[in-house]
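Retry 2 of 3 after timeout on previous attempt. Resubmitting structure tokens to design endpoint.
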């Protein structure tokens, strides 16, 4: 009987309706909270994927740069060797008056 009286009192005063509206608002708030949490989790997953892609691309670029560095050093070594040969030939011309590839005359 006391429970029936309490329910009647809640219905008459409108407290029950206020409680029901409050509960409904709380459920909507909770639903919005979980929707936001799911959206954040999806965004975090997307950011992890993009970070992985970025690291992969950077890695490829670093490998390519290392290959280019090797090629630059190889070409530099070739140029140094050519420069050394040119200087040797220039010294030969200066000292002996003989040009590379020039036929020499032998007087016997």
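Retry 2 succeeded. Sequence:
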């Amino acid at each position: 009987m006391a429970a029936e009286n309490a329910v009647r009192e809640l219905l008459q005063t409108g407290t029950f309706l206020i409680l029901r509206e409050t509960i409904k608002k709380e459920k909507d708030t909770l639903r919005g909270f979980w929707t936001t949490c799911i959206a954040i989790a999806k965004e975090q997953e997307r950011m992890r994927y993009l970070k992985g892609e970025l690291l992969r691309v950077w890695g490829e670029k670093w490998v390519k740069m290392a290959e280019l560095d090797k090629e630059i050093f190889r070409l530099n070594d070739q140029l140094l060797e050519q420069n050394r040969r040119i200087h040797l030939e220039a010294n030969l011309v200066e000292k002996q008056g003989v040009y590379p590839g020039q036929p020499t005359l032998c007087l016997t």
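Attempt log closed. Residues 15-96 form the longest helix (82 residues).
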